[in-house]
Specification:
Elements: H1 2-16, H2 28-36, H3 40-47, H4 57-71, H5 79-89, E1 101-115, E2 119-128, E3 134-142, E4 155-163, E5 172-177, E6 182-183, H6 194-207, E7 213-226, E8 229-233, E9 238-240, H7 248-258, E10 263-270, E11 273-280, E12 287-288
Antiparallel strand pairs: 1-2, 1-4, 2-3, 4-5, 4-6, 7-8, 7-10, 8-9, 10-11, 11-12
Helix pairs in contact: 1-2, 1-4, 2-3, 4-5
Length: 292
Amino acid sequence: AGAAELRLRLADRIRHGLADQSTAGPWEEVAARMVDAQAPGLATRVRELDALPQERLLEEYAMLHLLATAATRMDELPAELAATVRTRVGYPADTGKAGPTIRDRWLVLGTRDTTDERLTTRRVWLRGAKTGRPAVLLSFGHQGQAPALALPTGRLVEADLAYFPAAHPLRATLGERYGAPEPGPADPPAGLTVAEAVAGYGTAVADDPWLESRPTVLGDVVPVRAPDGWFLTDGHHTVAVRTSAVPEAALWRLAAVSTGRPLTVFGEYGHQGFAPVTAWAAGRRPVGLANA
């Protein structure tokens, strides 16, 4: 019911025209209705509409309309896509429904903490040494308390992971660990070219249209500061840095680690650019950037 109402609200805004703000009130009321409808994921995206620049409204209206439409037809969707829609709508993840466990030695690529008025959310990104699969672990702490999960960047953790069902599985839950974290390899993790990263994100979006970004390791890139922002270039192609997701101090730290030479950078790449999380210079330990 909440998704059906959201579709009507979006259609009403389009019918009046994006330039006509005379009848368009704030979206907070609609967000509250989504919370009442047990759809917190929709509520979060609706609240963000008030802060979006005008040129991005139609794009976000379209993606929200697509999600709301999918939510009203979940019984008709393939199982993995339906699981993705449930997650995007905001159904709580059921750890009992995670898939079969995968045992591997997981390299900790990086960690980022984000805080709102209620919770601190910690994201820990991993990559399997044997499988090569990326994974993200989420943990939460109440305001003023750090989340319990703490894995050092650059270490190897031998453990069982189980992925939650999704069209493009990334989120996982950590199972049994086999020993303490070990020192990781001396060399940086293998990275992609900028062109390969763009192609990989395109493939992922074909599975999950609402995927804002995906974990990506870029190899042999140099950070560049230009009048119109920060960029990472591999000499052939260039990707913009999503400065809204990274503290300014972190970007200068990235430049200092590079000293103008190519380095390996892990982060999240999506249609708004690349948000760096960790950097490796040749022969040096990983440097965290997300919480600088």
